[in-house]
Design goal:
Chain lengths: ~280, ~350, ~325
């Protein structure tokens, strides 16, 4: 079946997922191709062109420093997507490893879960702010801070899945056929966890983007020189009535991106489990 | 000859279809049968043959859509059901026709006591006061031989064993003294000793109330114990029907033979048959999507199948209308029926 | 010559609290079980739900640890083996599970599932592995073009065949079968039973065949043990059990099976009462409340499993006198 036919039949069964995926594809492409999309240096100050509304020369207008909002939003998208993806990968990887071991080995479990419970008692944003307070602002540190804040959620999910999968008959069968612990974890338990974990990963991706924007908005995220959607919104906050586009446009981009990620996540969940795969 | 009102249930040309992808599949295909008053009709078949769907369809308990139910007629005690409104149908269920299911735990409401559940049937259909309904509930529990009925009516389903719950279901079903009882695998989930008790109970009650029973099961032993007549179903169609003794002594469809011979017989170790292989039906029950549109549905698995069988769908044939089978080769089943010992 | 020997096996679980005494209830799922299986023979273990037969299977396969008692495989006491030796020993004893829908990992392909035991012990690799798996598929009657499929693409009977292929992959000496045909349609049961018997003949396998279905047990077993509430009440060869059952419970069990012939003889014979809760079993002989022939002694003393003839053991006071 040609790619086109595959896509259109996927569209019939999972329309929202395809739409979300397309939007994300556009977002990623835009982030990648930023320099060629009619952008200028996002940091370029143009004092003569301050607070211009959207026009032919500045598609999204300019901000208080005369910087082109279109360029800032596109380059800001890079930051958001990179942070989101990095956080998702790191927190999933670390959380999964901890959760797997914790779920299967009772002794480890006791200590780990107390630690995770403590971390989860603090809302993710506050935890991230606290962590950022003890380091200097940079994109890398933002990624680390948000990842740490999201890890306990992954551990909890992974662990609870391991606990229930342990009791599956096919795991008992694996034991009787001589499988060792690593084999049981990697062959039998882990693969049966991927569907919910994938979905969780996309939600973390979305949450991380929002948290980064919130952190930047509060001044505790990416440094002011680096354009990010949160930064742009923060700067435009005081001028909301004068120049609504500065807040509205990045806000819109933020919402649509996060929504698309969630839609893709839901669709992935359905597609990944061979039992529930809808025949395309 | 029996006049129309003499039949507790008459089903004519019942077909139930479900949409699948671009087309639809027949879960039940042109099924017709009658149950006389006070008679026990066994409906036998393996999973997927459509027997449960038939029962649900008759009771109009299938969600439609997606189910698509058509029938020329479905009559209970001479009264046409297929044209009734949902409100009227609700008055029929539990009153004229009652149904019991395989898993009593899922059919009983876990947050109501069993007394309340039985009494509810009575207040709904007979308009009895709550006090009178509860009193009657105690009577019914005694009827189904639950000891200490007076204490038990305040118990919840989870406090009872499987056999007890099944008895409660039977008590609920009998509360309004229905003329027809549909029992869908009533003993399958029970232990063999409990099953024996329930079968005996059903027999006694059936005889006492003169109820007609449609007994749906895959277990030929249970059918042999209880039924007067048997309908054998395969892939949504009736393939054989006849009186119980005849069906067991001289079946006229290879599938019926297969069902009978697939099971090991109790007592086989004592009469030298044990060491032999069981009769195997090759292949598997076709999924609804795999059904071919022409020829006998059983042909792919039948050792006696001929080209005629594969091309022409056999109608129900028999020497008399009492015992019929949908098979071109009913008279040639001798080789299948030979005893399996040396 | 005993291949598998189970000696005084006991296993209890924490049950519900006894409201009167406030003591934690103890469910004696397996209450002093002993039996043996010879090479190449099938021992049927029959009982109704809650009698503990599945727990016995798990104890033998070491999926659960017994509270006391021994499980000896080829003379080796499994409890005293080190973890790695135990693992080696698993090659000799394998298991077939009841539910073909949950006993196969839905994420693995059929050939991976069947080949896993071989991979676990590093016995074969690469093309040799593929070869061996293809042989196993053929042995259980599955077409080789099915190898790449996932479990959900097979029917129940085919999945059970996969489970059987997996169980024979290591060439075990004995297979513990926990209700292997109960979840299958009647016509498929026949296929699987025939297959299991063929494999037994070809490989000289022993089976511990656990089931609640008397007719199947009778068909496939050489000897039969009857369990009730965690205890064995009768143990003898198949023919004797079905021709001349001594224990009242066995008799009731056999009388309860519905058949066409029984209908003419009058009512089906049913025993009073229900299987008591394992949480609070009756004292003495567990069966006495439902037993037609119960004596005073039965309420107090639990009868031991003793020989009434050379090959027939019964746990009943009515018959132990005869043995003495």
């Amino acid at each position: 079946m040609s790619r086109y036919r595959q896509l259109s039949s996927l569209f019939r069964t999972h329309p929202t997922m395809v739409i979300g995926g397309l939007i994300l594809f556009v977002a990623f492409s835009a982030a990648l191709l930023a320099p060629w999309l009619g952008t200028v240096d996002p940091l370029q100050i143009e004092p003569m062109k301050r607070l211009r509304p959207p026009s032919v020369s500045n598609w999204f207008g300019t901000d208080i420093f005369g910087r082109d909002v279109w360029s800032r939003v596109i380059y800001g998208g890079r930051v958001s997507l990179i942070v989101g993806a990095a956080v998702a990968v790191i927190s999933m990887g670390v959380g999964l490893a901890i959760g797997l071991v914790s779920g299967y080995l009772r002794r480890v479990d006791r200590i780990v879960m107390r630690l995770m419970d403590a971390m989860m008692a603090i809302p993710a944003i506050l935890l991230a702010i606290a962590l950022m307070a003890i380091t200097k602002p940079s994109v890398g540190n933002v990624i680390i801070a948000i990842s740490i804040a999201e890890i306990p959620r992954v551990v909890r999910l992974a662990r609870s899945m391991v606990l229930s999968l342990r009791e599956e008959v096919y795991v008992q069968a694996a034991i009787t056929t001589g499988a060792r612990l690593p084999s049981i974890l990697l062959r039998h338990i882990l693969p049966n966890m991927t569907a919910p974990l994938m979905v969780q990963g996309t939600y973390i991706f979305a949450a991380a983007i929002i948290i980064e924007a919130a952190l930047s908005f509060l001044g505790a995220g990416t440094p002011a020189e680096v354009p990010s959607w949160g930064n742009i919104i923060a700067e435009g906050r005081n001028l909301f009535l004068l120049a609504t586009w500065i807040v509205l446009i990045p806000g819109l981009f933020l919402s649509i991106t996060v929504l698309s990620i969630n839609l893709v996540g839901d669709g992935l969940r359905d597609l990944l489990d061979p039992r529930f795969a809808k025949r395309i | 000859m029996k006049t129309k009102a003499e039949y507790a249930l008459e089903v004519e040309d019942l077909s139930i279809r479900f949409p699948v992808l671009q087309s639809s599949v027949h879960a039940v295909d042109s099924l017709s049968f009658k149950v006389a008053r006070g008679e026990v009709l066994g409906v036998v078949g393996e999973s997927g043959c459509g027997k449960s769907v038939t029962a649900l369809g008759i009771m109009r308990l299938l969600k439609s859509p997606p189910a698509h139910i058509v029938a020329r007629s479905v009559r209970v005690m001479g009264r046409e059901l297929s044209t009734l409104s949902e409100d009227s149908m609700r008055l029929v269920r539990g009153n004229d026709v009652a149904m019991i299911f395989q898993e009593p735990m899922s059919s009983l409401n876990p947050v109501l006591t069993i007394g309340e559940q039985i009494a509810e049937t009575l207040t709904t259909h007979r308009g009895m006061s709550w006090r009178m309904s509860l009193a009657r509930a105690v009577e019914l529990l005694s009827l189904v031989r639950i000891p200490d009925a007076r204490q038990r009516i305040d118990e919840y389903p989870h406090q009872l064993s499987g056999g007890m719950r099944q008895r409660v279901m039977i008590a609920m079903a009998l509360a309004c003294e229905p003329k027809l009882l549909i029992a869908d695998e009533p003993t399958t989930a029970l232990d063999v000793t409990t099953q024996a008790q329930i079968i005996r109970l059903l027999q006694e009650l059936q005889q006492r109330f003169g109820m007609a029973v449609v007994l749906i099961t895959h277990d030929l032993g249970v059918v042999g114990q209880m039924a007067h007549r048997v309908v054998v179903m395969y892939a949504g169609c009736k393939v054989e029907e006849g009186p119980i003794q005849e069906i067991f002594a001289a079946p006229r469809h290879p599938y019926t033979v297969g069902l009978m011979r697939s099971r090991p017989r109790l007592g086989s170790s004592v009469n030298g048959l044990r060491r032999d292989r069981l009769l195997e039906l090759p292949g598997h029950v076709p999924t609804l999507a795999e059904l071919s549109s022409q020829g006998c549905l059983f042909a792919p698995r039948c050792v006696l199948a001929t080209d005629k069988c594969r091309n022409e769908t056999p109608p129900l044939l028999g020497r008399d209308s009492n015992h019929v089978a949908a098979c071109w080769r009913s008279d040639d089943l001798g080789s299948l029926l030979k005893p399996l010992s040396i | 010559m005993k291949l598998l020997e189970v000696i005084n096996l006991k296993k209890a679980f924490a049950g519900r609290q006894n409201n009167l005494t406030r003591k934690p209830g103890l469910v004696k799922a397996v209450d002093d079980i002993s039996f043996a299986v010879a090479p190449g023979e099938t021992l049927g273990l029959v009982g109704e739900s809650g009698c503990g037969k599945s727990t016995v299977a798990k104890l033998i396969m070491r999926l659960l640890a017994p509270d006391s008692g021994e499980v000896r495989l080829d003379g080796d006491n499994l409890a005293t083996l080190s973890a790695s030796k135990m693992r080696e020993k698993r090659r000799e004893i394998q298991m077939i599970f009841q539910d073909p829908y949950t006993s196969l990992n839905p994420r693995l392909r059929a050939e991976e599932i069947v080949g896993e035991p071989l991979v676990n012990f590093g016995l074969v690799r690469g093309t040799e592995l593929t070869q061996r798996v293809a042989e196993l598929f053929a042995k259980v009657g599955l077409a080789s073009d099915q190898r790449q499929k996932f479990p959900h693409e097979f029917s129940g009977g085919q999945r059970q065949r996969l489970g059987i292929a997996r169980a024979i992959a290591l060439n075990p000496k004995i297979i513990v079968c926990d209700e292997p045909v109960s979840a299958l349609d009647v016509s498929i049961q026949a296929q699987i039973i025939n297959l299991m018997r063929d494999l037994q003949q070809e490989y000289g396998l022993a089976y511990l065949f656990i089931s609640h279905d008397l007719a199947v047990i009778e068909h496939i077993s050489h000897r039969v043990a009857v369990m009730y509430l965690g205890r064995i009440v009768e143990l003898t060869d198949t023919q004797t059990l079905f021709l001349n059952p001594r224990h009242p419970y066995t008799q009731s069990l056999l009388d309860s099976v519905p058949t066409l012939d029984r209908r003419d003889a009058g009512q089906i014979v049913d025993i009073e009462g229900e299987v008591p809760s394992a949480n609070n079993p009756p004292p003495g002989c567990h069966f006495h409340p439902r037993c037609r022939h119960a004596l005073e002694k039965c309420r107090v003393d639990a009868p031991a499993l003793v020989k009434v003839t050379e090959w027939h053991l019964v746990a009943c006071h009515l018959h132990s006198a005869a043995a003495a």
